[in-house]
# Entry
Amino acid sequence: MRHIGPKNRIARREGIDLGLKTPGSKSHANLLKKINIPPGQHGAGRMKKVSERGKQLRETQKLKYIFGLSTKQLKRYFIHAVKKTGNTGFFMCQMLEKRLDNIVYRLGFAPTRAAARQLVGHKHIKVNDKPASIPSMQLRTNDVVTFLNEKSQKIPAIEKTLLNKDIIMPAWLERKATIGKITGDPTSELIEKQIILRLVIEYFSR
# Structure
């Protein structure tokens, strides 16, 4: 089950911005001010020594929250990745990055992955000129992603996001106006800046 509680509390507990709040919003600004202060009345005073298993769990939780998945869904990606010959963590990252909702977010079509998921679920997105409504849909190189119509682009939150010039586009994505294209295979670089993948793999390997 996805977490539906306070999102800033989650991010403060993990100590990083998980991308759960719209950049530039008041809530996001408040988070950045307190990102290094754990939630709760006693804040940092409650910090305890964490076991190796605890560290593995924390990294797994971070990855789960970033992509808005349940533990069961995340483990399914691990099972598919471990069947491949090579780096399990890398293959797992590739599958997560290739999700349609993630690509909509990476292209700057939505302010958060949750918003991207909703955009896809409400059929505002097309893939290769065909309406798509499954957030977990796996895309491939040369697939083209765009909005269903101009009305979809005029949703206030989406329209504001499309004007953001500070979006960092991954090297494997290309965007021209409101048309996005997958130009290559995703890397694990962006995820590894936030997550220690080795600990996630160890967590699911037990």
Notes: The chain has two domains: 7-95+190-205, 99-182. The chain is about 45% helix and 10% strand. Residues 98 and 138 are 5 Å apart (CA to CA).
